[in-house]
Each structure stands twice: as structure tokens, then as C-alpha cells.
Amino acid sequence: MTAGRPLPVALLLPGQGSQHPRMAAGLYGHEPVFTAAMDEFFDAAGPEGGALREDWLAERPATDMDHVTRSQPLLFAVDHALGRLVLSWGVRPAALLGHSIGELASATLAGVFGRRDATGLVLDRVRRLAGAPPGGMLAVAASTAEVAPHLHGDVVVGAVNAPRQTVLAGPDGPLDEVGRALREAGFTCRRVPSLSAFHSPVLEPACRGAAERFAAVDRHAPSLPVHSAYTAAVLTRSDIDDPLFWARQPVAPVLFWPALEGLLATGDHLLVEVGPGQGLSQVARRHPAVRRGTSAVVSLLPARPGPPEADRAALEAAVARIRAAGHPVTRTAAAPDPEEHPVTTA
Amino acid sequence: MSAFTLEDLFRIMRECAGEEEAVDLSSAAAEQEFSLLGYDSLALMEAISRVERGYGIQLPEETLAEALTPAAFVDVVNAELAGATPAVEAAG
Which residues does the UniProt record annotate as the domain Malonyl-CoA:ACP transacylase (MAT) (chain A) (predicted)? Predict the structure, then answer.
């Protein structure tokens, strides 16, 4: 095993489908860095912040957690806040890889976007998408080649999560038809919790105009290497400079598996999932590097929603595993943070 | 003598997941939860349907829901195989 040199840490940030009521809420008020990051997000969200916070903490949110106005901003906030928590431990990730909205969270964690700007961009995206036609997502236990003959109309491959885990996206009616045809052909399918057809052309009209918002904010070189699930490669300067690269993310397919393969091709890593559930951990465990045991997977939160104590127990177990992998973890009471008091230009 | 073995299940799971590289799961894997082996509910649903088709049985949903490990899953399949009388199955 690795006597002297611990496996470099790569953070995995999950996206749509991983949300659930009170996700990571068991850490709120218990983990100061996480709590401060969430509060900062709600504050930056302005008038919408209060309702977002209330719905996040509610057993039965007023607005469905699977609705774009809840799933997207809260996944972004939770992923980012958990990432901040890991950074506060003194763990310096060698790579960040986000799925869907998780990519915006990882870019923000790496400082590509300022945090207030990022919150504004996420809320702008959500406002646009909330007006998009209804649709959904369907996970199929099949490869992209296997599903290809069954696709038609606006139903497309929205995400490649694993060699035989393909997520389709499209308007409800046509998506149901494709699902029926796939089941008849013997494929196993399961709806992904989403009330929008993420990563499909259905959202194209809604995303028009979003590029101007991205163009209007400062973008910086990342302080940590960000792997993009849209290019399945490391985020480049030209990606960062291109407002359309960001604006089109809700329409473009998520190439998570190819991106993970690219990341692990650079060397073995300790993959740490920073977000609700263990969806990305589970697919990562199928990767040959993890099967062989040269790379490993740690999830910060429980696989299934549970009581608040379960969130805290999962976090403690994750800390123990990260330490056992050779990374000293320093728990801090509060985060010294250069961006704590952003310069306001109001 | 089991009619359905752990090796059978692991082979099916690998096929379901489309894993190219056949890295043998250790015997300890038998007692680990599917999720820790990288198999989520979709992969598990797919494995169930493959076992049902391949062995001509219908696995009881309630029992299966509690079978969180490969070892428990294999037991459910074997119980079903043992109990399956030469079935008079409804056509279709």
C-alpha cells in the first residue's frame, strides 16, 4: 500500500437526482464551516433565501424538493458547503468533478466564480428553467448504444453515468413512450427524481439569454483542477472564457463516466463524494481502479435519507476514513476565509 | 448443494453493470451491502429481472427488499428454486 504518500483526494459533487428533503441538514448548526457556507448562500440569494432555507429544513417542503426551484439551488449550496468543509480540514483536493449542477459548485469551490456571483447565476438559471415545458428523466440499465435505437423526438441521452447506466431526458409524453418501448425490449428503467428534462433540447429556449449573465461576471483561473463532465476533460481557459459553455450546461449531456475515467487515468485517487446520497460513489465503485482497490471511495453523507444524527455519524465515519488514508484532518471551529467580507460595490 | 451460487450472482451483476474488466469480488463481498459494491437500485432491479428470466422463477418482492447483501440474495433465489414446483405458469 501507500506507505509515504497518501492517495490524492478528488471531490465528486452530485447533481439532479441526488436531492431529498433535509439533505445534509443534520450538519446544519453542528458543523460551523458548513453552516456558515449555507447561511452565506441563503443571504446571497436575497429575498428568495428565506423560502429556500425553510424548504431545505422542512420535512415536507412547501415546494417539492424535486422541482427545479428547489433541487438546483439547494444541491448547488449543499455540494459547495460540503466542499468548503473538506477544504477547511486542510485537505487540498487534487481534482474536482461535478455532475450537472455539481459542476457549477465545483467551479465555484475552485474560485472560477465568486460565491455571490455564482449564487446569482444559479438563481438566474433556475428562474429560466422554471418556465420550461415539463419533462423528466429516466435511468436505464443499458449502454448508450443499446438505447440509441429507441430514442426519438426530443428524448435524448442526458447523462452517461456508467457503462450500463444511461439517463434519458425529454418531455413527459415522449419519455414515457420511450420508456415503454425500452421495457418491452427487456431493459430495466427507473424514473430519476426530476420534474424537468435536464440535459435535453427541451430546455434550450429557456437557456437563451443565460450566456449574457455568465459573460457579465468575473471569471478566474481555478485554484484547484476542475474536471468537466461536459467535455470529459480538465476545464480549460477557453471553457472558462466561453459564456455559452456555462449557459448551455442544462441542455448539454453529462458525460460523468468518461470524465471519471479521464480523472482516474491521471492516477489513483481517494474519491470523496461531497453531496447528498451516494449516487456517484456507487457508480465510482464499479470503476476497475476501485474494484482493484488501488483507488477508493468515501461518501460524506448516508446512502439514504435518515435522521439528523445519521448525517453526523456518516460525516464522522468519512473523517475517520480520510484520516486512515493518510490525510491529516484538522477540524476547525470556524473558517478563516479570504472571501468572508466581499467588497461590495453597491 | 446450491443451485444458484455467489459466482452466478457476481457474474450477472457484472454483466448488468457492463464492467469490462473482470476483477473478482472477494469472498468478503458476499456479506457487504450491494451499494458498497457499487450496485445501486437500478443495477439490482436489472439483476433481479435477469435471474428471473434465466431461472424461470418469480422472486418474492418483500423478501428481496430485505436482501441487502449478495449472500442474502443468493439465499432468496435458492429458496425460490427449491420451492418452485414444476410450475404451471400463466402464459405470457
Answer: 12-305
Residue A184: CB atoms within 10 A of its CB come to 9
- Which CATH number fits the domain that encloses residue B57? 1.10.1200.10
State the residue range of the domain holding B14. 6-82
Tens of pLDDT, residues B32-86 = 999 889 998 899 999 999 999 999 999 998 888 889 999 999 999 999 999 865 5
Total count of domains within chain B: 1
Query: Do A105 and A143 lie in a common domain?
Result: no
B23 with A291: Cβ contact below 8 A: yes
Suggest the residue from B40, B68, B69 to mutate for an interface test with chain A (most A CBs closer than 10 A): B40
pLDDT in tens, A95-123: 999 999 999 999 999 999 999 999 999 99
Per the CB < 8 A criterion, the answer to whether A108 and A80 are in contact is yes
- Whether A330 maps to a domain, the answer reads no
> Rg for chain B (alpha carbons), in Å?
13
The answer to whether residue A341 sits within a structural domain is no
Interface of B with A (CB under 8 A): 16-21, 23, 25, 35-43, 45-46, 49, 53
Q: ipTM exceeding 0.95? A: no
SS3 A57: helix
